[in-house]
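Request: When convenient, would you put together a sequence paired with its structure tokens?
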Amino acid sequence: MNRILIFSNDTATSEGLRQVLSRSGFHTAVVSDAASLIEFCRQHTPDLMSVDLDAASPALWNAIQTVKGLGNLANLPLLGLSTEGTEETLNTAKQFGFGAVFPKHVDFTSLINAINHMIDPQSAAQTGVAVTSGDSLQALLGLTDEIRSLADELRDRVGEFGNDGAELFGYIDDSSEAIRTKLSRIDASALQDREIRHDFRNMIGSVTGFAELIQMEPDVSADSHRTLGRIRECSRSFVSLLDEQKAAAATGE
């Protein structure tokens, strides 16, 4: 059973989400302040954390940074809920690697689908969970933003990557930026187009391939290996989502 940690200082929000997740088979825990968030994550290992961004504050961001600094939670998937998030809050959430941010009035089917994919995209696909194009577009954006964030972590370590390291890293950086730009310019229905999916598959393939090449260099540190490994995981999840849209398009034809 997957474990979801819910952070919210609003009882109605946390209780409503807890009930929905529990009915969907998730094990849940709720914390309402930054100190409790840190303490919980020091003692437990959630599979995903849902954060009420209406409660965003310096203390919350510091707590999330502390949690991500814990060895076993460095890549903890983060999902945000917001009534009407400010641009500053949403940008900060992206910087902290949030995979998706949903409005609090979101259809809960979409929310559960997104959570399943953030935790384990391949398992979600195997269970036959239906994912709409809108869900997939948001998930693709979230994965791309995580890749961009991971690339930022690697930027100062390019010297570890061998003689061609800077060039190889540049391909990852440029490809992920191109993906983000293209995703931001399409609507969800475009994922039903075979040529568009093919373009995305080629671009994400470049990210995967160059990450693998860098990992083969002898002087790459353990931290960089883990970060590159997470980039490859995000890339595989990206491809899985494209495959689901391919299947959905075929069914609709």
User: Anything to note?
Assistant: The longest strand covers residues 98-103.
